[in-house]
Design brief:
The protein is an alpha+beta fold and 401 residues long. Helix content is 36%, strand content 16%. It contains 12 helices and 16 strands. The chain starts with 6 loop residues before the first helix and ends in an 8-residue tail after the last strand. Bound molecules: pyridoxal-5'-phosphate. Pyridoxal-5'-phosphate (PLP) binds next to helix 4 and helix 5.
């Protein structure tokens, strides 16, 4: 068996990509960038005109840009990705005390949004190539405990309705969405995609690339400060379903019936729309998006190049029929012995942070967080094995000079 590369060798390889580490000027995982964009001009225009809040031309323009880029028929810009998820689940009628199937390896917001509707995250394992929800595990779990009645799916163990399947495209890498979509279709379960990290990521279906988030009923994006583009805080729903789009737009704007002066509302709504001042940033970021993706691809190539000579650690790659936006480059320690991989991973995280490279381990599994300990879950062998082996590498486009 060949020797694994040492922590020092890995750190050297990383610094060949990101430049020399400096303790007093650390390199972060993913930083916002507005250089060479019209951001300042557009934001200034919002301020000068007074159109800073939840109406204004940039909101519409940002939604149009998102539709044009992703191919979605409809986009609804909202205040953040968590809100977008909660809204997406609510328009497909997820109700309190119903279950939504999610993977355990994701940002906590995926589960939080389910809980914000008083629904219950039900955890199903990931698979080890994309780190997304595992189609076989999903099928196995449904066969084991689900049954259909009057077109609805119920969990035999808990008696609760299973209301949706919510896969996540992790780190910008498309999950096995075609297979997941097939299972959702067989069970007549709505599919909602958490594509918060996946603007610019595509998967092939019948020889055509479809943007992540557009395989099921509705998908969501996030524009938080660390995402591939940012509006400060922000998110969006994307969908090809007109009724869902109208519903989302309506309840996200206090369920107000359009009228020149009258305040008439026909249900309890939310105040979820993205302010114009944030959308202004979004428009400027979308105008720069092609250049940004190009630089991220260069950065990825240079990581692939440096890591090709390392042993015992490998970089995640999108499958052949997918395009990843390469939001966060992700490395995995490959040692068979899990404890060994875990300690290599911890060493690298500690050493890199000590010298000013802010590497981050993958999230702790959600099933280990105090609020989700008792949630329904299937066997999670892949998630248990993978999460302690993963590190994310600095991936800001501006690293690529
Ligand atoms: C960022 C993120 C969210 C939430 O987005 P916010 O805009 O931060 O609320 C949801 N899911 C995943 C996977 C994310 O990475």
């Amino acid at each position: 068996m060949s020797r694994s590369s040492s922590t020092k060798e890995i750190l050297d390889a990383i610094q060949k990509v990101v430049g020399p580490a400096k303790v007093d000027n650390p390199i972060f995982l993913h930083e916002p960038e507005f250089k060479d964009t019209a951001a300042w001009e557009y934001v200034k225009e919002c301020i000068d005109s007074g159109w800073v809040s939840t109406a204004g031309k940039y909101v519409n323009q940002f939604e149009e840009e998102l539709c044009k880029y992703t191919g979605a028929d409809y986009a609804i810009a909202v205040t953040n990705g968590t809100v977008a998820l909660r809204l997406a689940l609510s328009i497909i009628n997820v109700k309190p005390d119903e279950e939504v199937i999610i993977p355990p390896l994701t940002f906590v917001a995926t589960a939080n949004a389910v809980c914000h509707l008083n629904a219950i995250p039900h955890f199903v394992d990931i698979e080890s190539n994309t780190f997304g929800l595992c189609p076989e595990a999903l099928q196995g779990r449904l066969e084991k405990l689900a049954y259909k009645e009057n077109g609805q799916v119920f969990n035999r163990d808990t008696g609760r309705r299973i209301a949706a399947i919510l896969p996540v495209h992790l780190f910008g890498n498309p999950s096995k969405i075609i297979e997941l979509k097939r299972i959702a279709f067989e069970w007549e379960l709505p599919l909602v995609e958490d594509a918060a990290e996946a603007l610019g990521s595509w998967s092939k279906e019948s020889n055509k690339y479809i943007h992540c988030g557009l395989f099921g009923a509705v998908g969501i994006l996030s524009f938080n400060g660390n995402k591939i583009i940012t509006t400060g805080g922000g998110g969006a729903l994307i969908t090809n379903d007109k009724n869902l789009a109208l519903k989302a737009r309506h309840i996200s704007t206090t369920a107000k019936i359009p009228h020149p002066w009258m305040y008439q509302h026909d249900q309890i709504g939310w105040n979820d729309r993205m302010p114009n001042i944030n959308a202004a940033l979004g428009v400027s970021q979308m105008q720069d998006f092609a250049r940004r993706l190009e630089r991220k691809n260069h950065l990825a190539d240079s990581y692939y190049n440096q890591f090709s000579i390392l042993k015992g650690i490998e970089l995640l790659r999108a499958r052949d029929d997918c395009i990843s936006n390469k939001w966060l480059m992700t490395a995995r320690f490959t040692a068979n012995n899990q404890d060994h991989a875990k300690s290599q991973c911890l060493d690298l995280v500690q050493e890199s942070n000590a010298i000013g490279i802010r590497l981050r381990p993958a999230w702790k599994l959600l099933t280990k967080l105090p609020m989700f300990l008792d949630n329904p879950k299937g066997p999670l062998p892949n998630a248990e094995s993978e999460f302690s082996r993963l590190v994310n590498l600095p991936s800001s486009p501006q690293i690529c000079k």
